[in-house]
Design brief:
Layout lengths: L1 H15 L5 H15 L8 H9 L2 E3 L2 E3 L2 H4 L7 E2 L5 E2 L14 H16 L5 H11 L4
């Protein structure tokens, strides 16, 4: 009797952690940022915007988030393989930043592709702070 209940609770707990709001993501990033940096003083939408437009060299090419997502995150973008990407801004694509697991997957991949490193919790929080403000 206890085993099925435990399994049901585990499944419920794991699926409920996938759903998120940008505010919930920011709260989690704030906790991570405080553990990474005791001097953490909050997120900055302007730093998030700067991160989005910052450029780096990757495989001999200049890369930024805008390389695929376009300079206007309310518009669709294209991958290097010419696959269409839905707009990044939640104002244009309401499902963006609503699945914590998916958000982490794409931060991991995109930070590695563009910056050749993992993004910090501070950077993720700055970025989410900015992207949710784009109207």
């Amino acid at each position: 009797m206890m085993r099925p209940l435990t399994l049901c609770l585990a499944v419920f707990a794991s699926t409920s952690t996938l759903a998120a709001t940008p505010a919930e993501l920011l709260k989690a990033y704030e906790q991570q940022a405080r553990s990474e940096n005791p001097a953490f003083a909050g997120f900055s939408a302007s730093r998030g915007k700067a991160l989005y437009f910052s450029q780096s060299q990757a495989s001999g090419k200049t890369m930024s988030c805008t390389t695929c997502h376009s300079a206007d995150p309310k518009k669709a973008g294209k991958t290097p393989a010419f696959r269409t990407l839905a707009p990044l801004a939640p104002a244009a694509e309401p499902t963006r930043f609503t699945d914590a697991k998916k958000v982490e997957k794409w931060f991991r991949r995109n930070c590695d592709d563009v910056f050749k490193r993992e993004c910090s919790a501070q950077e993720k929080g700055d970025f989410v702070s900015w992207i949710v403000s784009v109207r």
